[in-house]
Design brief:
Blueprint: E1 27-30, E2 39-44, H1 49-61, E3 65-71, H2 74-83, E4 88-91, H3 103-115, H4 121-128, E5 137-138
Parallel strand pairs: 2-3
Antiparallel strand pairs: 1-4, 3-5
Helix pairs in contact: 1-3
């Protein structure tokens, strides 16, 4: 006889979920970043909702990033962030209090996305052209070698 589940609690993207919302958890950026160049990232591996949302936000903002750490464990991601090797998104409620908040990156993403309005079609086009690319490094407007 197959196992039957009475309740499942998990994370979901709001517009893609079924079920009852129990809480909204705030996603925050942590780490140290000087504000220039490609953003060094520490993320969980493919399939992680936080990873998907973080990369989508950076891509919408047209910000270059490169993956420093991809781990199956949030603990490894936190260690990479704590060491200064990379920055990354974590659920605020679950992140270690010792990790530095990186609100400057969230502000930069918001400002860049806000600049991509229909009144600014050049920025809108450059960001749209990056959608659908999958890779470990991304600079706005570029493609991986295998995709050329």
């Amino acid at each position: 006889m197959p196992a039957r589940l009475e309740i499942v609690v998990g994370l979901a993207i709001p517009r893609l979920r079924d079920g009852v919302e129990l809480a909204r958890l705030r996603l925050r950026w942590f780490g140290r970043w000087n504000g220039g160049g490609s953003i060094p990232l520490a993320l969980c591996t493919e399939g992680c909702l936080l990873r998907r949302q973080a990369l989508a936000a950076l891509d919408r903002a047209g910000m270059a990033w490169h993956l420093c750490v991809a781990a199956n464990s949030v603990g490894v991601v936190e260690a990479a962030i704590a060491s200064g090797m990379a920055v990354g998104p974590l659920l605020e409620a679950a992140a270690s209090e010792a990790l530095p908040l990186l609100d400057e990156l969230a502000d930069a993403i918001r400002q860049r996305v806000a600049a991509c309005t229909p009144a600014n079609p050049v920025a809108r086009t450059s960001i749209s052209s990056d959608r659908g690319l999958r890779g470990q490094n991304r600079t706005p407007g570029t493609r991986r070698r295998a995709e050329r």
